[in-house]
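Thread title: Can someone regenerate the structure for this chain?

I was given the following input by a collaborator and told the matching structure tokens would be attached. They weren't. Posting the sequence so someone can regenerate them.
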Amino acid sequence: MASSDPDPLLRLRQSIAANEAPITTTSPDPSSEATDNLATATHLRFNDPPTSYSLDTPTRFLSSDKPVDLRSIWFAWQKKDVAIPDYIASAQSLNEELAVKDGASKVQNLVFVERLDLITWLEGASEESEYIKGLESDASATRSAQVASGAAGGVSTVPSGAAGTRGGRTTDPRLQEIYNGERRMGDRNSVLRGIKPTDFSHVRKLAESFLSRSRPSKSLPTQPTLISNP
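Best answer:
Regenerated them for you:
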């Protein structure tokens, strides 16, 4: 039975975790014989439940923003323990065989970081991958949760006695949501001087002490001494 649901990438990860590796076959027929030659294989078959996916099926794994097909994913997993030069050489050899076969299929050579990220995710050592696009069902569930909590869309909750009234009148919840998003503006004085008053009393005291020292002291004029004549 051929199928495209559930997701083939997720199905592969689950089968690896259960130690039930899929097999490559030459047709989607469950009775078809298995083959280890990826150049002649056309499908990847899982046993429980019986499901077959075309090796040309694009997956959620992205390389250079383009989906990587299932054949390249399975090939990278098979070569997870080989060195980079051997992996590249094996990919070139397989592509030569595929070119002779039909010329339509081709194994994509993943760079080291992409291959390491893919293998880590397939092994279950990582729950997330920066190269794997999320499932649509996961995105819908996340969106629904955000709407239910008021984080995105919907009507936000309004605390009682706080923002429920505006100017002594009851405000519609949807209108209150708009009010909550308003940008609060200040007047000219708050923009120039800030919202907190500035205390300059210490400056005035320092200025008075400085001025008192700089002023010349006023002395009383001396009276001339009177000399009495004998």
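The mean pLDDT is 78.
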